[in-house]
Amino acid sequence: MSQVALWFWYLVLMWIASCCAANRLVYAAETDSPGPQVTVDEPQKKTDSENKGRKETPPVAAFVSATKREIPIEEVTRFVTVIIRKEIEASGQKYVLDLLRASPGVAVTQSGPPGRTSSVFLRGTNANHVLVLLDGVQINGPTTGQALFEHLTTENIERIEILRGPQSVLYGADAVGGVIHIITKPGQKPGLHGGGHFEYGTHETFYEGGDLSGAWDRVSFSGSGIRLDSKGPGNNDGYENTTARGHGKVQVTENSDLDVSFHYDNAIAGIDDGSFLQDPNRSSRSRMQVLGTKYTTSLKEWWEQSIQYSFFHDALRDFDPRNPGVGGADPESRFKLDTDRHTAEYQTSFFVRDFDVVTMGYEFEHTETRVKRSQASGGFASLNRDHGWFAQNEITLWKIWTIVAGTRIDHFTSFGTEVNPLFSSGFWIAKTMTKLKGSFGRAFKAPTFNELFFPGFGNPELQPEKSWGWDAGVEQFYWQKKGSISVAYFHNSIENLIQFVGSPSKAQNVAQATTQGVEVEHKITPFKYLTFSANYTYLDAVDSSNGKRLTRRPKHEGKLGLLCEIWKLHFSASWLFIGNREEIVGVRQVKLGGYTRLDMLLAYDVTQFFQVYGRAENANNDHYDEVRGFNNPSARFFVGSKVRF
Fold first, then answer.
1. How many CB atoms lie within 10 A of CB 245?
2. Could you tell me the residue range of the domain that residue 506 belongs to?
3. Phi, psi (deg, nearest 5) at residue 446
4. What would the 3-class secondary structure string for 206-270 be?
5. CATH code of the domain in which 77 resides
6. Is the predicted pLDDT of residue 284 greater than 70, yes or no?
7. pTM reported for the whole predicted model
């Protein structure tokens, strides 16, 4: 589709949105009555705490990533997975990475034990094709385009929303495969509450931390901190992680709220050298700081506005002193990289009648990256700015058919303008409790800092990678919604992929890829205390130029899960199956064998406020590599305790 056609459809959409908004203004002026609430469920009565000014989070899982506003997950027209707090706690997992492994459409690799370089692939797209948000703040690093999942812990997380498929219509660059949104826990219960925990396990791993939350009248907050230390399985596999995060909310007036969130982590990991051999003293330090602020106000019940400012700082340090007993052939090496990203966004939503919501907004992003190397004279830096305008219209007809259409225009200082539309729809058949879904959209990924500017192989003339993607499927509920099963087919065509070619190598837009497959997800809770879950993904991800499979993405993967809570006992188990994958060794493409992994947890409530537990990772002791040359840990066992007040 040409740029002219895309601009035409953008102008048409903007004209429709303007007409709808104007129509609503006229209607409000004539009736002088508030607009209706847009929701499938019946409006709930206000609680006492709400009457006093504090808003309660609804118990039903809300989904904010699909539309940039909270809606019940039943109204989402995209294929999504939500990992809620109960599932996070029941699994016992300490890293977000391990929660994502068990999700449909997601493939994960890690170069060895915890704390080492990781990659997350969505629907077979590249790892830097996944946009990652933490409380609405993007945490992808501009250098590689990936988020540092290896350092993200599960402490104080309320839920993780995984939105699959192209999402540039609302989020701009990098949302080619989808969006992963990590949302921290808000303070909800009146009064002051808190707790602490301690865990010890294999490889002399210590994990301790605490949390504190509370709510009074118009103010609520939640915060946590953890410390993790592990010697690891090898000579230089040690890992340290200190993380603190918090989330606060103030109801400024009856119709306006101020949200503030922060995240800080500081991690140190020993790393192997480029030949996959043990380096006795090389280490990497990562420090990430995230700040998010958002002010939301409802001038009328049919008109909501928000303004948001966020700050992201990423500091990476790679230090490799001269190895003991080695002369000048092994010089000391230092590498420093710092990134600052400032983002400001304005968003407004019009609730038109009781079936139509129009959302429009503007986003500005300023990114600065600085690099310094000991083996090069001085350093270098870059600046990049992005202006983004977006509009989206959600229409629900007869309370059973939802249509969502939108588009976004981005202008980057480095490569120019991109236009990305999206259309999705969902149709609800009440008699059979069936929902049909489908979507079609365009997305793009901006060239990373390394691809554009890194000395020796960067290319400032690069253009963005572009993709078209669509999906279609069905979601079926049964047994009074105690059970559900969804099946989706997806297809993505990606062009202008950036590869390093030539000698010496240089980044160029020369490659194309196609990813397609099927996702199946099933979940049933026959009793309050028992939940079964299962999912399976078939993926055909190939390089369109030669037909070879894309590396590190399995063709088959699946998961079986069990959660049981009886009396004072809590038991969970997760069994993963990961099929064969391709890997590049030198100039050859070789096959990595598949593996299975069994994780389990058993906990006992000694009292209402004290719990002891034991858990196992890779309990079946399968030996495998997710990245060739980097062995993943064998069976690991942990014991711990939790206290609440």
1. 26
2. 3-644
3. -75, 145
4. EEEEEEEEEEECCEEEEEEEEEEEECCCCCCCCEEEEEEEEEEEEEEECCEEEEEEEEEEEEEEE
5. 2.40.170.20
6. yes
7. 0.89
